[in-house]
Amino acid sequence: MSFRDDTTVRRVGDTSFEAAIEPGWDIAGNANGGYLLAIIARAITEATGKPHPVTMTAHYLAPGKVGPVVIEVESVRIGNRHATATAKMLVGDQPIIVALGTTTTLDVAPEPLLVDASPPALPSPEDCVLMRPMKPSGDHDRVPSFVDQVDLRLHPEDAGFIEGAVTGKARVRGWFRFRDDEEVDPLGLLVAVDGFPPTIFNAALPVGWTPTVELTAHVRAVPQPGWLRCSFSTRFVTGGYLEEDGEVWDASGRLIAQSRQLALVPRGGTSA
Length: 272
Description:
By secondary structure, the protein is mainly beta. The protein has helices at 3-6, 33-48, 189-192, and strands at 10-11, 16-21, 26-27, 30-31, 52-60, 67-78, 83-91, 94-104, 129-130, 150-154, 171-178, 212-219, 228-233, 237-238, 241-249, 255-264.
């Protein structure tokens, strides 16, 4: 199955869509948050009649498990350029995600007016560390089955946590693409911004997997075919929460997506 197949939605009413959380997109048994957001975004684009998300914000209320879901969409405004809607993903009567999204028709290659940054410097994908499924070992959670769906390669400097050697800097950089030559579209960017190991894995702190409280993604353009360069960093771990800021650049060197995620630090610093 492909990402497109695994995020299919079917309209069953004026404001309702049916979908399914498919196997293989999980992290430690819970569906990846970006994958869930992509399902919601597909329902919102169908409801608003505009094909691409430009900004999506999701609040995660409960884990997503494999099985059927319903997405209830309520349009707020349909304009000439943008449309905005709210959405809830439900399992039975229980909401697991509440989202707000604005959709549009993105340009393939808009002319930038100001770019005060550069893509992250990465070795070639062949010289980076391929994330592979592995059995649980010690306190660090296994690499999730999510990596069966994506080709994820970490900068060697940021991959030491796999062997228990952290850098002390809460940063993760690397390459991203879907497997089986499926190109990443604007909906797929919602997976890319939530597809990497938590930045906190590289900090010298007793913290493992961190559950997402809220994820916001800004999509700037339709990606050019090829690998995506990604960079994620955290500066503050305070008050029981941490932020993770992300950038995604396409094969042509354009910034095509940004993200900010608020995550919970489990009590006592244990992994979630």
